[in-house]
Amino acid sequence: MLKNIFPNKVLSLTNKFINNLIILLIFILITGLVYSLLISPPDHIQGDSVRIMYVHVPSSFIALGCFAFIGIASIINLIFKIKLIPLLAKSLAPIGFIFSLISIVTGSFWGKPTWGIWWVWDARLTSMAILLLFYIAYIFAWKLIESFEKANKVSSIIGVVGLFNLPVIKYSVDWWSTLHQPSSITLTSAPTIHYKMLIPLAIMFFGMVLYSLIIFLMRYKTEVIKIKLNKKKKYK
Amino acid sequence: MLTKKVKSRIIFLVLTLLLASIIIFTVLKSLEKNVVYFLSPTEIYRKENVSFDKKIRVGGLVKKNSINKNGETISFIITDLKNEIVVSYIGLVPNLFAEEKGVVAEGKLNDKKYFIADKILAKHDENYMPPEVKEALEKSNN
After folding, report:
1. How far is CA B36 from the centre of its chain?
2. Does the beta-carbon distance from A192 to B17 stay under 8 Å?
3. Quick check: B104 and A179 CB within 8 A?
4. Which of A6, A197, B21, B57 is most buried, judged by most C-beta within 10 A?
5. B140 CA to chain A: closest CA distance, Å?
6. CA distances to A70, A151, B55, B74 from B125, in Å
């Protein structure tokens, strides 16, 4: 199975390519931070705490996106048992975990001055906390279970079950009354964020997605090398 | 194309997922009362067996010109543009608490039209804009 083209290609992925991506990332992040912290205007009600959004929204998106990938990968994994897929999902999990943590922490920092409280148990915040627990369970399944086959199965089941939480997070603000505001950017209507605030949000978004991609490539490469080393050991 | 083993796995997984989604849907539906963070004045007005001893949350907009400050005591009206409820509260309100903005009050009902809050939270909406744009909008509206 490891003769799949992709794992071998990832090994030939030189450090130079990753380094180039890092240089691009630094450039985007500096632009994004200067734009979101200095150039963009404060909000008419929230004042400067609106700037927290430029980190909060991309983090939440990446947290949800990573788990969506893990969940779908888990379904494919349970059906077809392709060895490459759990490696992809496994490499993504810590990234999603960190970003859901960042999303929750930055959200609290925003909630205190805006709502007047750090944390409430409304549907959006609670479902996001559940996502964090699913990430922890997923990562621990890989860490604590020694046999690859078994860990693969258990983590895939966690991934599939956690998939149900994603639409609940996404639509919680529409289905139920929550303290958290509904989405400002939707597919169906014009964004309710002024364009002067959308620009830094977009730059920060690309920067953070690029960061996740770099970390993912590094982790994935490591996972593939680990598997190959284990195989070599077995034949010796 | 697909082997028999793979086919049976697909059928098994689809059935499990279907069952799981039905269970989750019914659980969420039955928990709906607990999942909603606050009730609107209309929902309280229509509710048949309202409890006056249990803590609940009321949410809506602060009615224009309804805020009355008297020392530490503050009273205002929460409206959902259909029904209203008078809220009285002792203490500090969040900075973003203002007329015609979203608010969530936690406390107990005195009667269906009068609410005694022990916590006030400001609710932010999904609109983000710079102050000068807001001013321009207000000018064009007047």
Report:
1. 7
2. no
3. yes
4. A197
5. 17
6. 32, 43, 25, 23
The phi, psi pair for A103, rounded to 5°, reads -60, -45
User: Per residue in B35-82, pLDDT tens?
Assistant: 888 888 888 888 877 778 888 899 998 988 888 888 888 999 999 888
* B23 CB-contact burial (10 Å; exposed 0-12 / middle 13-18 / buried 19+): exposed
* Nearest CA-CA partner of B71 in B90, B98, B86, B88: B90
Measured CA to CA, the distance from residue A1 to residue A228 in angstroms comes to 12
Q: How high is the ipTM of this complex?
A: 0.80
Q: With 0.90 as the threshold, say if the pTM is over it.
A: no
